[in-house]
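User: Before I run my own analysis I want an independent prediction to cross-check against. Here's the chain; please return only the structure tokens and, at the end, one sentence I can use as a sanity check.
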Amino acid sequence: MVDVCIIGSGAGAGPIAYELSNAGFDVVVLEKGKNYTEQDFNKDELGVCRRDMFTPKLEDEFHIINEVQDDGSVKRYDGREYGWSFWNGSMVGGSSNLMSGYFHRLKPNDFKLKTVYGEIEGSNVVDWPISYEDMEPYYAKVEQVVGVSGKVVNHSFQEPRSTANFPYPELQTNGVTRWFDKACEALGYDVMPTPRAILSYDALSRKGCFYSNFCGSYGCASGAKGSSRAALLQKCKAKVITDAFVYRLESDAKRVTKAYYKTRLGVPHVIEAKIFVVAAQAIESSRLLLNSKNKFFPNGLANSSGEVGKNLIFSAGGSGSGRFVFEKLTQEQQRELMQVGVFFNRSLQDWYEYDKDGKKTKGGTIDFLFEHQNIIPRVMREVYDDNGELLWGDDLAKKVQKRLTTSRVLTFEVFNDWLPTDKCFVSIDKEAKDKYGMPVGVINLYGHPQDLKVGEHLAKKAVKILEELGCEEIDYSISSSPPPNLVAGGCRFGNDARTSVLDKNCKAHDLQNLYVTDASFMPTGGSVPYTWTIYANSFRVANVIKKALEV
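Assistant: Structure tokens:
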């Protein structure tokens, strides 16, 4: 029997393994995917974007998606048939290997949305059972241990910090950021360098950034990106078992006793532990608990409340872009524009909160970045002429050559709250099963109308900046399309066991030795990417588990 068994190896798992194994406890991590090192990562656009190099094949592992339509009806999609995948990084370190590393903290008001902004009809907004002050020391710890680069600047929604600045200076940026800063100043906006979980120089026994501009969706060949694998699991004494799909947890009335897992060939194994930690990604963690029902928990493990899988959330918002063209620029500006590798790294949070019709409204974050270096989508933008006709041969080649060498696209991403509702949740299918013979997860999708209103408000602010910069072809899209890499909820924490799955320390109300530490615990998501908060909370919970083991 080991001290701690962790299911999953991403941002919710790494801090637990790191802290407890380095404190002398016997820790085992069960990971379904493979283990990769920096030497295994490259910039294979086809492998990553067209052949799903780091995710399961949909014919083997898939989800059923039930999407609420505009007329209120529900349309069922089989992920295999529609190519609709919610997988994101099946490997040691999970999706943290593939993140862009945009790191923003939640704000104090994010922990008390209901109190500050009030109820919103049709949503299940609640306050968190902990405060920003409880989490702040662990945000600071992530900066040091995982490695966060940036520069703190004062702005209207700057959260309180226990340290004056980030431990690592901001990454190198393109000269166009100076134009951007001036445009924001002219508009009266406060701009800040985007904090990144990327080392700006060699540190923490890892290399600094190589500036390939292939961060999002790609593994980091330098180790500069602060993935759970590079920053934590490679630096601790935990035993990581790969090719281990956990399909069921066994329990009695009070404790989880065993975890059952299979290899990709179907060979079964079992492991016993004093404490079990589930961190398999929000959708899969709920699925595992629901598939682990027994006579003590007939509706799913730790589900006496009926809340397992409920209040699933994603990151709401969308994206937009504008194009700089040489015809409007001086030769010096053209040279600056085409600098490769270095980052753009600019963010705005001026509208993290705003007044709408005399009422205080929760807003969000806008991050600006250059179009991804992946050549495939950049070329695919150009395959049609101005009349919508498909281009071929020399005409296509000339257009692609001109567009890629005499212009550049600046994009923005909007992050705002995806409000939790009764209509967005995880369940399990009664018939469909994966290659392991287990019922697949059903993702029931619905986006609250307020999500779109806030996203539109933010996107229009971003468009004003692109217009001030003189960009052409400005466009944006705000929708309820769920990003599979930004998912949370399903096992929300709270003080009331009747309305939450976990207590404030992410231990299941129903069981003495079961914790859930991926983004499942989050009752609301804030208006930023989740990873920094997942890391910070996992370090916080690691302290709780350590004390429990020391008793």
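Sanity check: DSSP finds 13 helices and 20 strands in the chain.
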